[in-house]
């Protein structure tokens, strides 16, 4: 369990502050994460990694000479926001483009992809390789859906070594993809972890039992057994990995790096007892173990568990692997220490002027700001419930993420309204703040919905019900394009589709906004209820072949709660 | 809790085997531990560290260029035996003498001191500095009694850097003593750890509470409070350390290395949140934080807790600190990689011939071997009880240590008897095996008792009751000289004194051996019972100012059990 914090809501920020204070020799703080504090030669591709916090040394602990140039550090178990990734990437860029590499999780993919689009739009070359080493998170014929776990390290290191060797961006991407293809992991777990301030663990494993393939955020595994002996565990891990040797590799005679990674509470001594047998089994299979790693490379707070990774080398990969690294949490070989970079002051946040608005739009802006404040209050009221629902289906951060996002949106909306902004501007500011502060999948999607809706409200005149309905429809279209989810995937789309459909239908039939919105909210609530009811059963039933993209999501439930509360606000305004 | 093992009795050996398999680049296995696998220049002082296993990276993980030359690795939480330390020291010696440095625990002091005596007797120069950084384990006026915790790292590094810089042995000892004097730590704990195979934790801390000053083997602390906030914890740690700044140091303007060490289950993220505030507090006090360390340097399996160490630098210490290190678990700066040493085959164990014995002594040898087998059976029967008693008073390893020692003694005694050895030789072989395999305090003391007794039995003729009584008296004298304990210190001496006294008195009064032994065993049992009864109360009451030397010990209880069982054997022999 986690025991030490100040305010749980500030945990990630304070953790990053302490991490930077302890490691100024390696890293400096930028908005959204850290970059190297040492000089990077101009013209070197910048390798930017990232993901949620709670996995130290991943991701900030891996920034330094020979490894990452920057890490976007999200909230606990939540993807960094697009804005955070963008900020880190810009600070890390040394003029030769940016290479993104990170574990394959839906929220991270959403936000890194959006950041990549924005970098490219700004003329910065950017390529991406997601890490998909966890062989139990999807079948071999759906390898691209697999999650990334401790195998992150091999892909990150190879990409960084290539960058330091002067490879151009496309070549960095090529060797990183090759490293990913040749990296396979399998994990087991004995207990879950507890997020700071949470009353109970995010997930549990029954006493005396071992979950096979359980994800590092508690994503369901493929099997559960009694805890084996150390030798039995070694045999399980090695045999399953030998069942899936990469194409073109023959185990007998191969050279491979074994990485036995601890998730937090399974300790070094236990892992060495297991490794003793792993070494024997690899030798028996004719595999030459190169540079074995036994330690903590990607943790999940104090989760008890371990994973074994095999990184199947070829000549180029081995040459890139065998290079020096000097970072806060990971060091190999001898590094010629680079000079400390001038700590360029962080660029001040861009202050953009409030566009002019007429009185009608300013009046509407007040309703918009009230609605955003209502959203924040609704999330506050339900934050524990949302967290619990998400801990069954996902990684338990939905409540916290929604809270951080909606609070930031409320503050931004009120500030903009007080500065005389119109409806569109108030909502755009709220959307940007939400996406930036919340991170994760839900943060990105709510940012998209509110931005789309804002575009139909304008900063002049009173928005009409048809504007709102078409704005919501635009938001729905953007979410489906962006999140790649469809109805039935158990995501917020399941509630957003009936909401948008009913809103448009009612408005087209002549209803006023309050009535149309209420009818739409009812439709969303019905859809969300059936989705939410499925969660516990689905959580238990999810097996091999399904991954975190498209799995049940409490996002439908929170959407229903929010549109219902906003409906009540509109209805009250109507009556007054 | 600990979850993964094969046979708990083999855990430490298998752990070391796996550790070496994963780290052949750094270390090679020798009897008793590991030494560097890289070339050490002839004429460099060899720094040998060591202690019980279960504290990784301490101690094997700290062997490599720029740090230790060898580590004696004991059983779990048990000191390595004299023989193990001697073996590692001889393998590490590069012709310029051996420097021992380790945490100040009674068992380690006993065994390292004995190894030092034997090295010196063999013409190898040897000096020792024990680490005493834990300020809550004894009052400032008894600093030499304090335990060593994470501050080990500073003393080890300074000694090793001095050795690599070519300092002679006396100068290595001088700077190590200075480093120890300028290293102060304070620890807190939230939960205990569980030894492999143990049914329950070695010790516990009540849920929601924090023990202040609790030792890394559960040695009682000085206070207990509710778990504070992260900032509150930082303030506690820093303020207590600032209360005890070393003589001659002014905090304001000082340069100090802060080391925030995790004990196993308190994770990096939590420690960074705490470090954030520590950095502020140090700055507020005018202290320049140099090369901050936040991580795991000396753990206690999966114990949840942390310690803060401040290492107060002067120019020489800072120069020695700022040198490169490359070991399995600890790396700093750039090391010029040394060549791999020829893996000199371990010297085969010395095989010494069995001295001749007459028929009478061979008959007595059978009784001796039976008695040693009885001891092993008695320990087996009571192993859990002994472990529980020790977990109240000490580190819980007494049962396991006695088991390993008595089993080895039994096997050696039976082998010697079968080879035709006399009584003295059988018992000497048993004594050597016990001390070598058990490690810890009890292993060393039982080795001393049996060796002393053996000296009076001889390899010719039938030993007389007076021989046995004077042998036991010699054993008592040796234990008191060696272990520095007196009656009333709550150690095995409390039972051994009445046992020896009554045995001598009864024999002198004309009793046969069986009767005299039984009377003596009764006296030992009475004495042990009163000692054992005190344990739970004393365990709770031990506070600031007492340390592990001379605190209650289940050794008196196990001695009483053993002499009672041997008495029954003698009595049965008499009747037949």
Automatic annotation (TrEMBL), chains A, B:
GO terms for molecular function: ATP binding; glycerone kinase activity. GO terms for biological process: glycerol catabolic process. InterPro entries: DhaK_dom, DhaL_dom, DhaL_dom_sf, Dihydroxyacetone_Kinase. It comes from the Bacteria. SMART domains: Dak2 (SM01120). Keywords: ATP-binding, Kinase, Nucleotide-binding, Transferase. PROSITE patterns: DHAK (PS51481), DHAL (PS51480). Residues 7-330 form the DhaK domain. Residues 366-568 form the DhaL domain. One of its GO terms (cellular component) is cytosol. Coiled coil: none annotated. The keyword Plastid does not apply. PANTHER family: TRIOKINASE/FMN CYCLASE, TRIOKINASE_FMN CYCLASE. This is Homodimeric dihydroxyacetone kinase.
């Amino acid at each position: 369990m986690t025991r030490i914090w100040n305010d749980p809501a500030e945990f990630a920020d304070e953790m990053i502050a302490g991490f930077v204070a302890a490691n100024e020799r390696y890293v400096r703080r930028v908005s959204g994460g850290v970059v190297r504090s040492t000089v990077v030669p101009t013209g070197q591709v910048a390798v930017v990694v990232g993901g949620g916090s709670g996995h130290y040394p991943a991701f900030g602990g891996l920034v330094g000479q020979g490894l990452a140039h920057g890490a976007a550090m999200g909230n606990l178990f939540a993807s960094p926001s697009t804005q955070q990734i963008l900020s880190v990437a810009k600070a890390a860029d040394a003029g030769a483009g940016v290479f993104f590499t990170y574990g394959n999780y839906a929220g991270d993919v959403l936000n890194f992809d959006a950041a990549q689009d924005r970098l490219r739009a700004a003329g910065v070359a950017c390529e991406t390789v997601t890490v998909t080493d966890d062989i139990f998170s999807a079948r071999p014929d759906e390898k691209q859906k697999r999650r990334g776990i401790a195998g992150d390290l091999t892909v990150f290191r190879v990409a960084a070594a290539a960058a330091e060797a002067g490879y151009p961006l496309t070549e960095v991407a090529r060797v990183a993809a090759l490293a990913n293809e040749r990296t396979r992991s399998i994990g087991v777990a004995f207990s879950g972890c507890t997020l700071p301030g949470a009353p109970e663990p995010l997930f549990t494993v029954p006493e005396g039992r071992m979950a096979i393939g359980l994800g590092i955020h508690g994503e369901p595994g493929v099997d559960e057994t009694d805890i084996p002996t150390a030798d039995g565990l070694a045999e399980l891990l090695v045999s399953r990995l030998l069942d899936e040797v990469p194409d073109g590799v023959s185990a007998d005679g191969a050279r491979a790096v074994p990485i036995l990674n601890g998730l937090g509470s399974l300790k070094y001594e236990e892992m060495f007892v297991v490794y003793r047998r792993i070494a024997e089994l690899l030798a028996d299979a004719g595999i030459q173990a190169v540079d074995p790693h036994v330690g903590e490379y990607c943790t999940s707070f104090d989760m008890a568990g371990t994973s074994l990774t095999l990184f199947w080398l070829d000549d180029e990969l081995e040459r890139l692997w065998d290079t020096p690294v000097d970072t806060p949490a990971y060091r190999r070989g001898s590094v010629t220490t680079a000079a400390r970079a001038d700590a360029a002051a962080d660029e001040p946040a861009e202050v953009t002027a409030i566009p002019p608005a007429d009185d009608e739009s300013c009046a509407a802006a007040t309703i918009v700001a009230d609605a955003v404040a209502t959203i924040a209050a609704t999330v506050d009221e339900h934050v524990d419930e949302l967290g619990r629902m998400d801990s069954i289906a996902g990684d338990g951060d939905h409540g916290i993420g929604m809270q951080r996002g909606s609070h930031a949106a409320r503050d931004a909306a009120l500030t903009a309204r007080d500065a005389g902004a119109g409806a569109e501007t108030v909502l755009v500011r709220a959307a940007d703040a939400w996406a930036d502060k919340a991170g994760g999948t839900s943060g990105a999607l709510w940012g998209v919905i509110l931005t789309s809706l804002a575009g139909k409200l304008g900063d002049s005149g009173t928005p009409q019900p048809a504007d709102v309905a078409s704005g919501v429809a635009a938001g729905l279209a953007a979410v489906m394009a962006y999140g790649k989810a469809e109805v039935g995937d158990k995501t917020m789309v399941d509630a957003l589709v009936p909401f948008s459909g009913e809103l448009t239908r009612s408005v087209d039939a002549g209803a006023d906004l309050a009535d149309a919105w209420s009818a739409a909210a009812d439709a969303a609530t019905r859809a969300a209820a059936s989705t939410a009811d499925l969660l516990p059963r689905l959580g238990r039933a999810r097996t091999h072949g399904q991954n975190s993209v498209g799995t049940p999501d409490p996002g439908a439930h929170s959407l229903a709660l929010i549109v219902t509360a906003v409906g009540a606000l509109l209805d009250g305004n109507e009556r007054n």
